[in-house]
Design brief:
Layout (H helix, E strand, L loop, with lengths): L1 H11 L3 H11 L1 H18 L2 H29 L1 H21 L3 H13 L4 H12 L10 H30 L2 H20 L2 H4 L21 H28 L3 H23 L8 H19 L5 H12 L2 H15 L5 H27 L5 H20 L4 H16 L3
Helix pairs in contact: 2-7, 2-8, 2-9, 3-4, 3-8, 3-9, 4-5, 4-6, 4-16, 5-6, 5-9, 7-8, 7-16, 8-9, 8-12, 8-15, 11-12, 11-16, 11-17, 12-14, 12-15, 13-14, 13-15, 13-17, 16-17
Length: 414
């Protein structure tokens, strides 16, 4: 019952129920648009090569512009940025659907990627603001970020399913893109009107981000190394798991199912973890959780069939959302308050970069004879390195986290 009360407390925070529910609707495009875009361009051009290149254009444009949008949100508040991009992104997707030649498709995809609303950063900053030290709700921060991280997994489960449904019913991937545009517009505009987005505290100009912004904050670069490692492993899994399914005669459909149940395991682990309040320092928690995710990848090398792999993915997935939850909490603690939106957008940017690199490297390993188990070893090894970075007793993450804890206690003594 105590665990349930924490989530009830999160739900009752001002704007909490909207962030948890509409936040999923608003971000369905993250799970829908890349797949629908791939199918649309392939249908239009007849080329998977062009479709894959266009998907890269969309992802790179978003990853490149995201920190800029985050810095603007830090300076003028998230509400105007969310409201503007809630209109610009759907318009770009509509232009993409109407485009008939490959150059125009690439241009529209780049604009659509660049104008995707910085929703995840704004929502996570919103949770940080609502549970700030001294607010009387700081004890709910862990549960709030765990709920956010776990429910966010639904985007990656529901998104591809919705695309499949639209394509089966209409035989046109464009309908899925238009549905994603509608969900993004409605959800983002709704969230932008929340008081937590509109009540923006202007920081002194000397605290505003300049140059590399939060990347110069103590412990933040080391934390980004760990985030890159997670992105690399997840990007690798997106290639390895479907390849494993194909190797065992299951095809792409089985690969999607296996990745989906991996996400279910992650959501379960995240919801459970949100009810815990470990006494261990966050940096040590992060190190142990990264190590657990690494071990879960290494265990996959021993699975003899898709059935056993699926069970291992569910069990291993339980470690993922807790690791992401602690990582997101550390972002909120290590980054200066005046740079928090930008800090969260950097996690998106480096994750996308890591995912692209992980997928490419894993693909090269899988293509080699007997390479499938070694691809799992590659992903697990990257995470073990990240765990060691986080585990250094007096390393940059541990020192920065200790300073953050001292600042919190100065505001909200135990």
């Amino acid at each position: 019952m105590a665990a349930l009360r924490q989530y009830v407390g999160v739900w009752r925070l001002p704007g909490g129920r909207i962030l948890l529910s509409v936040g999923i609707l608003a971000r369905l495009g993250i799970g829908m648009t890349p797949l629908a875009l791939l199918l649309l361009v392939q249908q239009t051009t007849g080329s998977y090569s062009a479709a894959g290149l266009n998907a890269g254009v969309y992802a790179v444009a978003g990853a490149t512009v995201s920190p800029i949008a985050g810095r603007l949100a830090d300076r003028i508040g998230p509400a105007p940025i969310l409201l503007a991009t809630s209109v610009l992104h759907p318009l770009a997707l509509i232009g993409l659907v109407l485009a008939t030649s490959l150059p125009w498709i690439f241009a529209a995809s780049a604009i659509a990627g660049a104008t995707y609303p910085p929703l995840t950063a704004a929502i996570r900053r919103g949770w940080n603001n609502m549970t700030a030290a001294g607010s009387g709700q700081h004890h709910l921060r862990g549960a709030a970020l765990a709920a956010e991280t776990s429910l966010f997994e639904l985007v990656f489960v529901l998104g591809p399913l919705l695309v499949s449904a639209f394509v089966v019913i209409t035989h046109r991937p464009a309908t899925a893109i238009l549905a994603a545009a509608f969900a993004t517009f409605v959800g983002t505009a709704w969230i932008s009107r929340l008081p937590v987005m509109r009540r923006w505290h202007r920081h002194e100009s000397e605290h505003a981000a300049r140059g590399l912004g939060p990347l110069t904050a103590g412990g933040f670069p080391a934390l980004m190394i760990c985030v890159v490692a997670l992105g690399t492993a997840f990007g690798a899994a997106g290639v390895i798991v479907p390849a494993y399914a194909g190797h065992h005669g299951g095809g792409d459909g089985l690969g999607g199912v296996l990745l989906g149940i991996w996400g279910v395991g992650s959501a379960i682990g995240g919801i459970w973890f949100g009810t815990r309040q470990p006494a261990m320092a966050l940096a040590r928690q992060f190190a142990w959780l990264l190590g657990a995710v690494a071990v879960s990848f290494l265990i996959l090398t021993l699975m003899p069939s898709p059935l056993y792999l699926g069970m291992a993915l569910v069990l291993g997935g339980v470690t993922i959302a807790p690791a992401l939850t602690v990582g997101n909490t550390l972002v909120g603690r290590l980054a200066p308050a005046a740079m928090l939106n930008e800090a969260y957008t950097w996690t998106v940017t480096v994750s996308v970069g890591g995912s692209a690199a992980g997928g490419a490297i894993a693909g090269a390993i899988v293509d080699r004879p007997g390479g499938l188990p070694w691809a799992f070893v590659f992903a697990g090894s990257v995470l073990l390195v990240a765990a060691l970075v986080a585990a250094v007793p007096h390393g940059p993450i541990a020192r920065a986290d200790q300073r953050a804890e001292e600042r919190r206690l100065a505001v909200e003594p135990v």
